[in-house]
Amino acid sequence: MIKEFNTQTEVSVGLEALWAALSKEFINIVPKVLPNVVKNVQLIEGDGGVGTILIFNFLADMSPSFQREKITEFDENSHEIGLQVTEGGYLNQGLSYYKTTFQLSSIGEQKTLVNIKISYDHESDIEERVKPTKTSESTIFYLRRLEKYLQLNGS
């Protein structure tokens, strides 16, 4: 049964700049924001909208070495994007389903509220090793790094 974990964080970057970084510029920005983790992101199929398939190639000493994700939600009006892991990554750690959805809302000129929903399922008692609170921490870590990157490089 698919479970959900919800959290949120505020990012000191304007809504449009953050949306562009999480959607349109995602492929180029991720390796710059996480240079010690992600070697590159490849667009395998699609145009960046629903159905697009991406492969995140991690550095050589990382295990697993890649993660394939599919964009399952993409709404420019509500600033919502959902990415489902379809191969590698968390699925190699015992989860049978893993999806992260970001929904952005402006809360000021240079402030954006990011609602994060993690949907997951597991094949066994793996939840002790791959807790949604732990994976949400890595998602928030990415958002903090992205925030700094955008602030330094003009958001």
TrEMBL record:
Domain Bet v I/Major latex protein: 4-149
InterPro entries in the cross-refs: Bet_v_I/MLP, Bet_v_I_allergen, Plant_def-hormone_signal, START-like_dom_sf
Domain of life (superkingdom): Eukaryota
UniProt cross-references to SUPFAM superfamilies, sorted A to Z: Bet v1-like
Family: Belongs to the BetVI family.
Protein name: Bet v I/Major latex protein domain-containing protein
Source organism per UniProt: Flemingia macrophylla
Taxonomic lineage of the native organism: Eukaryota, Viridiplantae, Streptophyta, Embryophyta, Tracheophyta
